[in-house]
User: Fold this.
Amino acid sequence: MNICFICHANICRSFAAERLFNALSEKNGKSNLKAFSRGVYASPAYEIPLKIKKFLEDNGASWQGHCSTLLGREDAERADLLLVMTEDQLDLIMDKFPQYADKIFLLLDYAFGVEEDMPDPISKSGCGFEKIMNRLKEATEAVFKKLAEN
Assistant:
């Protein structure tokens, strides 16, 4: 199963979720569960913030080898599940790819059944950043558990 995590620029939330998810898949021997990530306004010129690199390292996931990538039709087609961070992103992707509406969900809704946005931690520091990133990690773990049990 291919899971695509999607955020704004593909350097923070979606990228971190991808790497955390794939680390869980590897750790638990679930090679059939693979994640990739994209952004709705991504650009190869965007760099991964140092605090994201550190968060991933601290949580046993690699940050290396990533390039911010724009979501395309081929990605939506390839993914069995598309998980977006915000309602705005959900609307944008539903408008762009209505044929895939049955596999596009808000991350927190799919993970926990709560229809709310996953905030962007990029402008946060200290406790604010950690709180958001830990929530992202919990959501990613919940998605992994849900899919691994099926």
